[in-house]
Design brief:
This protein is about 70% helix and about 5% strand. By secondary structure, it is mainly α. Helix 9 packs antiparallel against helix 11 and helix 10 runs antiparallel to helix 11. The protein starts with a helix and ends in a 7-residue tail after the last helix.
């Protein structure tokens, strides 16, 4: 399995390079001018100097190579340097930082910093990766919890729907799954806001805030309760959408395996029904579902953009929308490519899990 993982990682490198070229080319050729939002009083010569400072006067292949170097070399080196408080190469410089030592005076600490060229946002002039790291916790809290809830709900529903096929439980589960998968998240979010934030009085225990407060900190029980309340609706919206999809795959996979010969053989040998379902059928049924769950993680991150806008969550989705509206090409390129990297990575994770669930799969 280790050799297979290494081989897949090596294959992933040219795959990501091709994806990065497509993303860079599509966004670079888009009719967006980074100087379009500047005041009209700025003359053409100044605008040309601004474009030159952004590197837009360089040929396409030069800009693409510079972006690859920044993403694959400079950014990882920057993460290593920050993690281990060190500096590599000739880009290191000495920086003096004033540090408060007492109430009325400050000391000075001198340490090495790197002036290595990194991907910068055209709108804020801040490092794009730092902006993403700053916004990521808010997105991961909501999306991560929603996905865990979706899996915990979808798997039992799919299993029970297959075991009790055409029962009232299966009919209700099928109906709820179809509704959850068919109705878009923005509509579900607006319905929940109308019901739990508008129709229910604010002093009621069932009232939920419609705007997510990203500055809220959990310090005591009351603040923890408020955090749970403000996460309830976005988690429910994303959880319902993902649970609907996963439960349908789980049900279909279980039904396919329940009718195979090895199940009838296991029952004929006198095995208990619980052992047949949980040990034999469930393990084989999880193989295709693993792909859906693994691929769904980056897809959920991308799909959460709409949900973040509805509940005003200041996460990666809001950052991406801001970049699109402001024609901030480096920001949009980086976030989009990170989503592509996650898809390739979780594809590899799904393939590795196959070997754990099914010993018949051999990678060597």
């Amino acid at each position: 399995m280790l050799r297979y993982a290494i081989r897949r990682l090596l294959i992933a490198i040219p795959t990501l390079i091709v994806i990065s070229f497509v993303i860079f080319a599509v966004l670079d050729l888009a009719p967006n001018d980074p100087t379009g939002n500047l005041p009209l009083t700025i003359d053409a010569e100044t605008r040309a100097k601004i474009r030159e400072a952004m590197g837009l006067d360089e040929p396409f292949h030069i800009r693409y190579a510079a972006w690859l170097n920044q993403f694959f070399i400079n950014e990882p080196l920057n993460i290593i340097e920050k993690s281990f408080d060190t500096c590599f190469g000739s880009t290191c410089q000495w920086e003096a930082v004033r540090v408060p030592r007492a109430e009325h005076w400050a000391g000075v600490e001198v340490h090495e910093v790197s002036d290595r060229l990194r991907i910068r946002s055209w709108g804020t002039r801040s490092e794009v990766v730092d902006l993403i790291v700053e916004r990521a916790p808010q997105t991961l809290k909501v999306v991560g919890l929603a996905y865990v809830v979706a899996i915990m709900i979808a798997l039992p529903i799919g299993i029970l729907s297959a075991i009790y096929q055409y029962s009232w439980f299966d009919q209700i589960g099928t109906f709820v799954s179809m509704v959850g998968f068919s109705v878009p998240t923005f509509f579900t979010g607006l319905v929940l806001i109308v019901v739990f934030s508008t129709m229910i009085p604010e002093d009621s225990m069932f009232w939920l805030p419609s705007v997510y407060d990203t500055t809220h900190e959990v310090t005591d029980w009351d603040s923890f309760v408020y955090q749970v309340r403000q996460m309830a609706m976005p988690v429910a919206v994303l959880g319902l959408f993902n649970a609907a999809q996963i439960s349908r795959y789980m049900r279909a996979s279980m039904l396919e395996n329940l009718n195979l010969d090895y199940v009838r053989t296991a029952r004929a040998k006198g095995m208990k029904e619980r052992v047949v379902i949980l040990v034999h059928v469930l393990r084989n049924s999880l193989i295709p579902v693993v792909t859906v769950i693994a691929i769904g993680i980056p897809a959920t991150l991308a799909g959460a953009i709409i949900t973040e806008q509805i509940f005003r969550i200041n996460g990666i989705g809001a950052l991406l929308i801001t970049g699109i509206q402001g024609a901030d090409i480096p920001l949009v390129q980086t976030i989009t490519f990170i989503f592509a990297v996650l898809i390739v990575f979780f594809n590899l994770i799904a393939d590795l899990i196959y070997g754990i669930l099914d010993p018949r799969i051999r990678y060597d």
